[in-house]
């Protein structure tokens, strides 16, 4: 993640020591988690389930998926729940670094175990009103550096044209209605496999709406890539 010369990094480590957010052990300046704590996280096993839609419990949680392939890092629970909320609502950047370490690990594994790979990656866009109010897109902050590091082709073809209500207090049916015609794709994607990137999927309504727009633009397959998965029975995040 860092492009500092090795000697400069060593000097910065000595002058400004960095500590693991989990165990407080000393780590490199461009990290937030030590290797032991990263290894200890409860992540999805993508080796046995390269497409999480084929895992029975996840298939049951998201039975109406329009997308074809699902990759995610973990369930929306501790410590990811805290990290995502602190990043989204308080802009705590060291949690971004921790999440990037997790995403990079899972993305590398997913690339190894899947026989095919998306042609394009699209970060789920915010509506302009919400982006101006918040001042940043936490999904872009977290995922884009990792995607670029993995030499993935990132596109801004998807546009959110409808200022939707916050999804967190809506039922599943109202979530779907809330997102009707919310997205439009501004690029011909004929024959492409496209990955949609988001932080948390609760009902799948947002990803489904984006998938419809992307398939309408000609995409042959849509993958969903998430930081975390949750269910409608759990506490909401969106």
Automatic annotation (TrEMBL):
Stored InterPro entries: ComF/GntX_DNA_util-trans, DZR_2, PRTase-like, PRTase_dom
Protein name: ComF family protein
Double zinc ribbon domain: residues covered: 12-41
Residues of the Phosphoribosyltransferase domain: 175-224
Organism this protein belongs to: Pseudoalteromonas shioyasakiensis
Pfam short name (any one): DZR_2
Family in the record: Belongs to the ComF/GntX family.
